From TrEMBL:
UniProt keyword annotations, A-Z: Hydrolase
Domain called MurNAc-LAA: residue spans: 284-416
Name used for this protein in its record: N-acetylmuramoyl-L-alanine amidase
EC number(s) per entry: 3.5.1.28
Region annotation (Disordered) ranges: 215-234
Superkingdom in the source lineage: Bacteria
Catalytic activity: Hydrolyzes the link between N-acetylmuramoyl residues and L-amino acid residues in certain cell-wall glycopeptides
Ranges annotated as biased composition (Low complexity): 225-234
Top-level enzyme category: hydrolase
Length: 423
């Protein structure tokens, strides 16, 4: 910055008179400094955010104004059991040097932003945090901790809810923010500078909702707990594995559209996006490794050419640490798919929720334990494709593409609904 604007900034004409003798105007000029108005701005975030393909999301380290919710990350989610993001802040005042606030203490705090949806006629609930920091690994059970990617001066823990740092010689400070790793758990971060009466609302952070879509079967060879194909369509001859993949891709597209249209932090992973077979345990492991909230495996039934209907499977209660949550997910999916098919075919049948011991739903492979079970799962059997009417509906009739999309959209909406309403 040049010196001329700085001089102009502080000049004030205190008095101006004209000498009666010399006829020369004389001005008395005082130099004033502006009021010491504090500014605290989030200037950078870490780490970078990667999309579902492992590519860096453009601008993911840049701060945006409230109420934009910046996504948090889950690193080794099965071990750390926490979501986090680091925030770098510039503390400054107009017309002051960068080191003007150096050494001053900054106190960090947060307030909840997530509001659970309510049914029509119910009173809206207050914002609340989701989950419990005590579930996190040791060292991550506080809301704030010292950052690793940004340099921070003087980090000090006040208690579980607050911490302090100090402003460095360049006018910066930084911290790591922790939130329980549950979909859409969100917080507004505030800072209060030593000597100031009011805190400054700084930035909003949110845990992304993470969904794994598992198109069943695939490939030409059976794998452990995953056959290459089970059912074949009545007339069209379309294989279950191909129909499952088509629906999986459609659901992913529908979820990504909701991500953009509703401005949600929502990540969608597929266990397969081509004609490949994957062992059942490996499918479940993906959900564990990406820190998913929900895994749904998409399948189609085949039996005797007559049976039909929609059913959704969960692991039995005696071998399922979050049985009730899985059943709630399954019911949402089942109702959504049955409703979409019924809208097109009055012969639709609701076969309800059933229990099966399936590898893709195994708590051990999903990373669920009695103490910590973040991942809900269900296996959806959309319909019996060896039934002639069903085959015509999904693969032959002129509007079959639209019918498929309506079912996929219903699945996507049910999954987001589950993310919002689950415990």
């Amino acid at each position: 910055m040049s010196t001329a604007p700085a001089r102009a900034l502080y000049r004030r004409i205190a008095n101006s008179v004209t000498s009666p003798i010399t006829n020369i105007r004389r001005r008395e000029v005082l130099l004033d400094r502006p009021a010491d108005v504090l500014h605290a701005d989030a200037v950078e975030l870490a780490p970078e955010i990667l999309d579902e393909d492992g590519e860096v999301v453009d601008g993911s380290t840049e701060s945006q104004a409230i109420p934009h919710k910046h996504p948090m990350v889950k690193v080794e989610p099965a071990t750390n059991r926490i979501a986090h993001r680091e925030v770098k802040v510039r503390v400054w005042s107009e017309g002051r040097p960068d080191d003007h606030h150096a050494g001053r203490t900054v106190t960090w705090s947060m307030a909840p932003l997530f509001v659970r949806p309510v049914e029509e006629g119910e009173e809206e609930s207050d914002p609340a945090f989701r989950g419990d920091w005590a579930q996190a690994a040791a060292g991550h059970r506080d809301r704030f901790e010292a950052p690793a990617e940004f340099a921070a001066s003087g980090f000090s823990r006040i208690d579980q809810e607050q911490a302090t740092t100090t402003v460095n010689a360049t006018g910066h400070t930084a911290i790591r923010v922790n939130l329980p790793p549950i979909a859409f758990n969100a917080a507004r971060i505030s800072v209060q500078l030593e000597g100031e009466e009011a805190a400054v609302e700084l930035i909003d952070l949110e845990v992304p909702g993470i969904i794994v879509i598992d198109p069943g079967h695939g490939g030409e060879t059976d794998r452990p707990s995953s056959s290459a194909n089970n059912a074949t369509s009545h007339t069209s001859g379309i294989l279950e594995k191909d129909l499952a993949l088509d629906f999986g891709l459609r659901v992913r597209t529908a979820l990504r559209a909701l991500r953009v249209g509703e401005d949600r932090n929502l990540w969608v992973h597929l266990t397969r996006d081509d004609d490949t077979n994957i062992a059942g345990a490996e499918r479940a492991n993906l959900g564990r490794d990406v820190g998913a909230d929900v895994l749904v495996s998409i399948h189609f039934n085949g039996f005797n050419g007559v049976a039909r209907g929609t059913e959704t499977l969960v692991r039995r209660r005696s071998d399922n640490v979050n049985y009730d949550e899985d059943v709630a997910l399954a019911q949402r999916l089942n109702d959504a798919v049955y409703g979409a098919i019924l809208a097109r075919d009055e012969g639709a049948i609701d076969r309800g929720i059933k229990e099966r011991q399936l590898a893709v739903l195994s708590d051990g492979d999903l990373g669920n334990t009695a103490a910590h079970h973040p991942l809900r799962s269900a296996l959806l059997e959309v319909e019996f494709i060896d039934n002639e009417t069903v085959d015509e509906l999904l693969s032959i009739n002129e509007n079959h593409e639209q019918v498929r999309q309506e079912i996929a959209d219903a699945i996507a909406n049910a999954l987001v609904d589950d993310l919002m309403k689950s415990s």
